[in-house]
Amino acid sequence: MSAHTLSAVLRRNLSFTYQRYGTGRSARLFSSQSPLAPPLAFCFDIDGVLIRGPNVLPAAKRALSILEGDNPFGCKIPYILLTNGGGVSEQKRCQKLTKQLGFPIDSDQYIQAHTILKTLAHKYAKDPVLILGGRLDTLRKVAQDYMLTREAHRVWPFHSLTEIEKETAQTFDLGRTRFTAAFVFHDPRDWALDCQVLCDIIQSDGIVGGPYINPKTSSNPVELVFCNPDLLWKSDFPRPRLGQGGFKAAFQGVYQALTGSQYPHIQFGKPTRETYNFAEEVLLNRLRYMHNGHALSRPHVYMIGDNPESDIAGANGAGWHSVLVRTGVYEPELGEPSHIPTHEAADVEAAVQWAISRELARASNRPFQGRLE
């Protein structure tokens, strides 16, 4: 069903609501002149929901067209994007998404796996920290935008710096630099190198090349933070690919083989509760911005994702409604999802249609049929 057809169907339902309730609460709620916000809002995963690899999924543009105003509420329905991806600045990524999707995506409605680290910047602003992942010095610039710092150096004998890497590298005295924390911002490109560096700074109390000590005896052990727990993610390759969760498993396996135990760490990213709490605050701020700062009631939030382990588990834990689409990691032919969603849909457009029709039925006090009538 096209966005235009959907809008016509929903407006017929809307007409029924007006006829039934006249100028009552439902009429005020759905009036295009009403200052009240629509009763729902959306949170979208990106890879496997809106895009796959470099390609935009056809249903994505139709879904966003509905949210941008082609709906019975006669206004924009608020939405944010929540991804376990990253590796570039939010501004740069939003510029690319705007071009791909054909709708403006603002940085205040976009959350990457490492965006939450902005809330921790004050804690590490004056101390050297190690940033892992990404290409060249891209993440160093992101960390600097967050008011974090990045230090990097060649400490792995099986890799020779390319000329491009030499141009972006910074020189400093490793023997006099103590790293207080290590952040895995994005998927590392060289797992062996990054496993070695992490093991070095953790076992040497933050100083690469220093004598090894038992980290448990340190008065200020190196903090280790992972931003994305996804073991798998969906790209344009036919099968799901290993993500940052795979790197974490590799590092912890190596560290345990060396020391006999895994190293304690902080985990952000979907499905952690911290990330969903952060996303909800971003969504409410977006709603306030769209309505000139007015205090508004919390809408019913619908998370639309393709990964039961991250999107659905996190949304269920946050008390959101969850919709699992079949355009990404989830493969229904392999069996029931590990976390049960509120609803399953073929794609993101069908998911948006279902959520709107559900809220329309709820507002009109009619039984919800699970489909558009």
Automatic annotation (TrEMBL):
Record-level GO cellular component terms: mitochondrion
Name the record gives this protein: HAD hydrolase
Listed InterPro entries: CDP-alcohol_PTase-I, HAD-like_sf, HAD-SF_hydro_IIA, HAD-SF_hydro_IIA_CECR5, HAD_sf
Top-rank lineage group of the source organism: Eukaryota
Coiled coil: none
Gene Ontology annotations of biological process type: glycerophospholipid biosynthetic process
Annotated source species: Leucocoprinus birnbaumii
Pfam families named in the record: Hydrolase_6 (PF13344), Hydrolase_like (PF13242)
